[in-house]
Design brief:
Elements (H helix, E strand, L loop, with lengths): L6 H9 L17 E4 L2 E4 L9 H5 L5 E2 H9 L13 E7 L2 H6 L5 H11 L5 E5 L10 E4 L2 H6 L10 H10 L5 E5 L1 H12 L9 E7 L7 H11 L5 E5 L7 E6 L2 E6 L24 E6 L2 E9 L2 H12 L3 E5 L2 H26 L8 E2 L2 H4 L4
Parallel strand pairs: 3-15, 5-7, 7-8, 8-12
Antiparallel strand pairs: 1-2, 4-13, 4-14, 5-6, 9-10, 10-11, 12-13
The protein binds flavin-adenine dinucleotide (FAD) and iron/sulfur cluster (SF4) (2 copies).
């Protein structure tokens, strides 16, 4: 979106400034950028003044209104949640999926259905929390592989490096599950003048996200509390719980969130998006209702997929109570306000929002 910049600019403006989200969009497109655990680094200057890495990165100049027009054909009418067609509660009808999923299993059920019904050929997902802790990307070719990726891994994952690999392998129609910064990078790939095959991604399921953890530090911290190979699931119940719950074979342990806040990736403090605003559908928890999801249907493609999945008994939906919707909007709005405050604190300039390009009309809503 900003012409004439390349890997050295990426290093200076993003990597060296601690702004990298570890999304993986710049990984695997050239030999010069590598990822070690969740740390992305330029190992050698590539010599080009302009590059895909800079263009795709979610922390380089990002024109929100232009992306809205590309994805939704219009600018947003809702400043807190972005464009959407409907917001409801949903859950997978298959109890096996629900029992293996993080909450209601809507993400796994929809993506498995998209593959098994032939709408897409494969999906790029993230390996779940499995005691090895460091997530990696997985290219799932069928519903059972999708289910093998169920559950949340709260460590930042370079998932889009897996997409870059899958695109080279030439699959025609792909699905991707990603957190908001990954979805943003993927839409920037699709908007870019560089042709990588990202336009072959036909279904993007976004996850709600407030923050993700750095692998380093968190792994050592957790290892001191629990034997990694015994861990089965991580969960962060909604406020006011203020705990991280670790389910292990030997029982459940609860860790105060205050002990892990130091491992949150610094870039999350400047993240503007809680609900994956550029996804086809976005999925999160329903606070206080454990095996249901909040489902935001955003695009016509997303609507068609959700409709078919309902008709075929893959998922069921219910209206989301007005009070829950207001709460979701408020939480999302607060994340945006906090992000802008933090950016301005860093730049010391109300007009310099680092990567965010907002219209004056939108900007006014977050002061
Ligand atoms: C880092 C992180 C932070 C989150 N924060 C919130 C939040 O603040 N509020 C909220 O409501 N929900 C949050 N979620 C989303 C929530 O945990 C569930 O993923 C979502 O509600 C879908 O539930 P499900 O039962 O349908 O998921 P499942 O059917 O179990 O599917 C989970 C999917 O998540 C993918 N995944 C797991 N870990 C990662 C990762 N690190 N990066 C990318 N994809 C991953 C898997 O590939 C899988 O496809 C967060 C998720 C993550 C990964
Ligand atoms: S594209 Fe993603 S992984 Fe690469 S520098 Fe930007 S945020 Fe980090
Ligand atoms: S808060 Fe934003 S930057 Fe941080 S992991 Fe979530 S989506 Fe990415």
């Amino acid at each position: 979106m900003e012409a004439g910049k390349g890997s050295l600019d990426l290093e200076k403006e993003v990597l060296n400034e601690g702004l990298c989200t570890s999304c993986g969009a710049c990984v695997g497109i050239c030999p010069y950028i590598k990822v070690v655990k969740d740390r992305v680094a330029l190992i050698e200057p590539c010599g080009l003044d302009e590059g895909q890495c800079y263009d795709f990165c979610p922390r380089t100049a990002t024109d929100i209104a232009a992306l809205d027009r590309m994805v939704f054909g219009k600018e947003r009418s809702d400043s807190s949640l972005g464009s959407y067609i409907s917001i409801e509660m949903a859950q997978a009808r298959d109890s096996e999926i629900r029992s293996r999923a993080q909450y209601g299993g809507v993400v796994s059920a929809l993506m498995a259905y998209a593959i098994d019904s032939g709408n897409i050929g494969a999906a790029v997902l993230t390996r779940p929390f499995d005691g090895g802790f460091m997530p990696t990307s997985v290219v799932a070719q069928g519903g059972s592989q999708v289910l093998g990726c169920a559950r949340s891994n709260y460590i930042a994952s370079p998932t889009l490096a897996g997409l870059n690999r899958a695109m080279k392998e030439g699959e025609n129609a792909l699905g991707v599950v990603g957190i908001p910064c990954q979805v943003l990078a993927l839409r920037k790939m699709q908007a870019s003048k560089y042709e990588t095959g990202a336009k072959r991604v036909k279904l993007i399921i976004g996850l709600f996200c407030t923050w993700a953890l750095s692998y380093r530090g968190f792994y050592e911290f957790l290892k001191a509390k629990v034997e990694p190979s015994l861990s089965r699931r991580l969960d962060i119940p909604p406020p006011p719980a203020n705990i991280l719950v670790v389910d292990t074979e030997a029982g459940t342990i609860e860790l105060p969130l205050d002990q892990i806040r130091g491992f949150i990736k610094p870039t999350c403090a400047i993240c503007f998006d809680m609900t994956a605003e550029f996804a086809d559908v976005s999925v999160g928890m329903v606070e206080g209702v454990e095996d249901w999801n909040t489902l935001i249907t955003r695009t016509e493609e997303g609507k068609r997929m959700v409709q078919r999945a309902k008709e075929e008994g893959i998922i069921e939906t219910r209206p989301l109570e007005e009070a829950r919707l207001s709460h979701l909007k408020e939480a999302s709005l607060q994340k945006k306000k906090r992000a802008i405050e933090e950016i301005v604190r860093r730049t010391k300039d109300e007009r310099n929002l680092l990567y965010l390009r907002l219209s004056d009309r939108e900007r006014e809503k977050f002061t």
